[in-house]
Amino acid sequence: MYIVLLACGYDSYSLILLDYKVIKRPLSVTIIAWFAIVIAVLSLISSILTHNNPLTQQLMAKSMVPISLQYGLLYGGLSLTLVAGIGMLKGQHWARLLYVGWSTIGLIIGLATTPIKIALLPGAVLLGLAAYFLFRPAANAYFSARLAANNA
Fold this sequence. Notes:
The protein is mainly alpha-helical and 152 residues long.
């Protein structure tokens, strides 16, 4: 597929013909992105609905992290996950870095603050699988094409 651009200089106009190769989004990227979006939205709704629940407050008070910081990390993290999911669907290179980076930070925070470490194992396995598929050659080609198009 070719794209024709009209480039204008100070004293002339010229046509630029670009060979633009369309790279389809890998199914694995689509699944991971939609998983991130759906989980972020459902978690946001759940968190809002249980925000003033006495049991939630009681459980949060047992943590060594102040409740206000817990809420900040919760809503900030869900927002970042949502943005990363949308960005991955659009082929934005930074989105997969944001998703894997923030998820890793969240896992580290969880390891430092959660009394039941084994509860983090399913999330750690899912993070490992997501990172594996987000950095495979097909995903690299998909994100690289968008990165090159943005830099052109």
